[in-house]
Automatic annotation (TrEMBL):
Signal peptide: none annotated. This is Rrf2 family transcriptional regulator. Keywords: DNA-binding. It holds the Pfam family Rrf2. InterPro entries: Tscrpt_reg_Rrf2 (IPR000944), WH-like_DNA-bd_sf (IPR036388), WH_DNA-bd_sf (IPR036390). The keyword Kinase does not apply.
C-alpha cells in the first residue's frame, strides 16, 4: 500500500494552512516555499482542497488560503478520499486481472477479503482523526494519535 504524493502533499499543505496565524491566510508562493513544491503543483492541490470544501481563498493582492471550517471538523478520511480515494475500492479487482479480461478469482477470492478488512480497519481509524489532531509539533501529534489508536484498540476488544 502506498500513500500518493497528492495525498501526502495535500495533507501537509492543509496542516500548513491550519497553522497559519495571518487573518489573510497563506499564499501559494508561501506554501510553495515552505513545502519545497512548485507553485503550479501547490495551486493544483489548493484547487482540490477548495473543491473538497476544506479551504477557501481570501481575495486581493495580499490574499491567501484559510480553512473553510474548523480543524476539528475536518476528518482526515474525508480529506484523503478527496485527494486520492480509497486504497481498496470496487474497481480494485478489475484493475488487477492479469493477462485476462476478468480476474480468475473474481468469484471466489480470499485476497479480496483481506483487502476489504484492511480498508475497513484503516477507515475506522481515519474517521477518528481530525486536522486538529495534526496541527502541532510531531511530538504532540504523535501523542494525540497514540491516544486515538489506544482508544480504538480498546473499543475493538
Amino acid at each position: 500500500m502506498k500513500i500518493t504524493a497528492q495525498e501526502e502533499y495535500g495533507l501537509r499543505i492543509l496542516i500548513r494552512i491550519a497553522g497559519c496565524k495571518d487573518a489573510a491566510g497563506i499564499s501559494i508562493p508561501q506554501l510553495s516555499e515552505s513545502e519545497g513544491l512548485s507553485s503550479h503543483y501547490v495551486a493544483k492541490l489548493a484547487r482540490a482542497l477548495r473543491m473538497g470544501g476544506f479551504i477557501k481563498s481570501t481575495p486581493g493582492n495580499k490574499g491567501g488560503y484559510l480553512l473553510a471550517k474548523s480543524a476539528k471538523d475536518i476528518v482526515i478520511k474525508d480529506l484523503l478520499t478527496v485527494l486520492g480515494g480509497e486504497m481498496f475500492d470496487k474497481e480494485f479487482c478489475g484493475q488487477h486481472t492479469g493477462a485476462m479480461r476478468l480476474c480468475t478469482n473474481s468469484v471466489d477470492c480470499s485476497a479480496r477479503s483481506l483487502w476489504q478488512m484492511v480498508q475497513f480497519v484503516v477507515n475506522q481509524l481515519l474517521v477518528r482523526i481530525t486536522l486538529h489532531d495534526l496541527v502541532s509539533n510531531e511530538t504532540e501529534s504523535s501523542k494525540n494519535l497514540g491516544s486515538l489508536l489506544k482508544d480504538s484498540l480498546v473499543l475493538a476488544e
